[in-house]
Amino acid sequence: QVQLVESGGGLVQAGGSLRLSCAASGILFRAYAMGWYRQAPGEQRELVASITRGGSTNYADSAKGRFTISRDNAKNTVWLQMNNLKPEEASIYYCHIENWGDYWGQGTQVTVSS
User: Fold this and answer.
1) Which residue stretches of 17-103 are H helix?
2) How far apart are CA 67 and CA 18, in angstroms?
């Protein structure tokens, strides 16, 4: 079955960096665009960044210049490098298969202290 497993979250000070990973299984990974989303308590889930199967990227305005999404189709993995994190970006971060089904991982918690 389809599985998405996120990792790499944690506690970081404002201005710090984290690299999130999402390992996918049960799908032909290279055939799908992938996205990273986040959801803070009481808020709607929002797109942070996405990457097409060909490697083209798209970012939320708030992420541009600080976050980088990348993928390795041989490893069935997509990453989100987050630099200069802000306290308001503390959320659970999820990866998602774009435009196919409704599969989500369990998420990884990112906490940013001020």
Assistant:
1) none
2) 10
Determine the Cα–Cα distance for residues 84 and 71; give it in Å rounded to an integer.
Answer: 21
Helices and strands: H and E segment counts in the chain? 0, 10
For residue 14 the two structure tokens come to 């404002």
Q: Is there a contact between 33 and 45 (Cβ–Cβ < 8 Å)?
A: no
Sheet holding 18-25: strands in order across? Answer: 3-7, 18-25, 77-82, 67-72
Summarize pLDDT for 59-101 with one digit per residue, the tens: 999 999 999 999 999 999 999 999 999 999 999 999 999 988 8
Sign of the CA dihedral 88, 77, 107, 60? Answer: positive
